[in-house]
Amino acid sequence: MSAFGVAATPGAPSLRGRDPIREPARCALYSRQHKPLGNPTPLACTVAKACVEAILGASSLDSLVRWLAPDVREQLAQQHSLARRAGRTGAPNVEVRRARVCRVSAEACEVSIVVLCEGRARAVAMRLQDVSGRWQVTAIEIG
């Protein structure tokens, strides 16, 4: 009988004396591996375009909540608010001209993107990391 009044199943392995944290192969929670993420370029281009539109006051960040880290989302929301207060509400024509991806590790990459907006070229640099099996923007700089 165990401490809970349930009889142990004969032949079942016992966890007594074992630490599942130090022996991750024996613990089902730690043995799950997700496959490596694919090419982040399409996501990075979409996020960059939406972020530039947001800081110029056109669109909100509601559609990007899943793809942005909380601190990045707060930073962009502040810029969006400042643009709205300045009277910028029109939707600018934003076009992604070029994107370059550099894999830093298996779980992270850095992307540089050139965006054309209102006759001006802007640089967007972002870092994407694997968070729960999907790409998430953890840092962004828009020039």
Entry keywords:
4-stranded antiparallel β-sheet; Nuclear Transport Factor 2, Chain: A; 143 residues; alpha+beta; globular; 24% helix; 3 helices
Summed up, what is this model?
By secondary structure, the chain is of the alpha+beta class. It is 24% helix and 29% strand.
- Main sheet: strands, sense, barrel: 4 strands, antiparallel
Gap between N and C termini: 67 Å
* Shape by Cα distribution: globular
List how many beta strands DSSP finds: 4
What series of H and E elements makes up the topology?
A: HHHEEEE
The CATH architecture designation is Roll
CATH topology descriptor: Nuclear Transport Factor 2, Chain: A
The proportion of strand residues reads 25-35%
Number of helices: 3
What is the CA-based Rg, rounded? 23 Å
Helix coverage percent of residues?
10-25%
The CATH class name reads Alpha Beta
Mean pLDDT: 79
Total count of domains? 1
Spatial ordering of strands, largest sheet: 1-2-3-4
Uncertain runs:
24-31
Structure description:
The protein is of the alpha+beta class and 143 residues long. The chain has a single domain, classed as Nuclear Transport Factor 2, Chain: A (Roll). Helix content is 24%, strand content 29%. It has helices at residues 28-31, 41-55, 70-85; strands at 94-103, 108-117, 120-131, 134-142. It has a four-stranded antiparallel β-sheet with strand order 1-2-3-4. Strand 3 (120-131) and strand 4 (134-142) form a beta hairpin. The longest helix is centred in the middle third of the chain and has 16 residues, at 70-85. Residues 24-31 have low confidence and may be disordered.
